[in-house]
Amino acid sequence: MRCIFCDFFDTKVVDSRSADDGKAIRRRRECSKCGKRFTTYEKVENLPLIIVKKDGRREMFEPTKILNGLIKACEKRPVALQDLEKVCAEIERDLNNKMDREIDSSLIGELVMEKLKILDEVSYVRFASVYREFKDINTFINEIELLIQKQK
Description:
Blueprint: E1 11-19, E2 24-31, E3 37-43, E4 50-52, E5 58-60, H1 63-73, H2 81-97, E6 102-104, H3 105-119, H4 121-131, H5 137-151
Parallel strand pairs: 4-6
Antiparallel strand pairs: 1-2, 2-3, 4-5
Helix pairs in contact: 1-2, 1-4, 2-3, 3-4
InterPro entries: ATP-cone_dom (IPR005144), NrdR-like_N (IPR055173), RNR_NrdR-like (IPR003796)
Zinc finger (unnamed): 3-34
Cofactor: Zn(2+)
């Protein structure tokens, strides 16, 4: 690491500690030539995820879109925002752990429904009705019957 003051190439680490809730490392460095100290941060570089939409368009992954969808599905339900943020973070982690950098939007929808089913069944049915484009009341009834069967 080059010194930011004198541009000398040899610096030593005098202190390291965790930063940003364990997502980064903060290092205090000292230049071997001028003796001045400075701070650097080291964190994992995340490669961007590309979402492939149903119509073939591609766009950058935006976790806020998932969170907004969860909030709409859970409107007027006893689900804490903290729980929705946790679900969103879990989905983002699951997607980042995949080997592919391009993800079908259908996979995201299925992950959201899987998590919502555990969190709040009414919110799950709301989300599923929009995501799966329920056409009539019979589709709702079928989905609810599936939920009831899985509970037994």
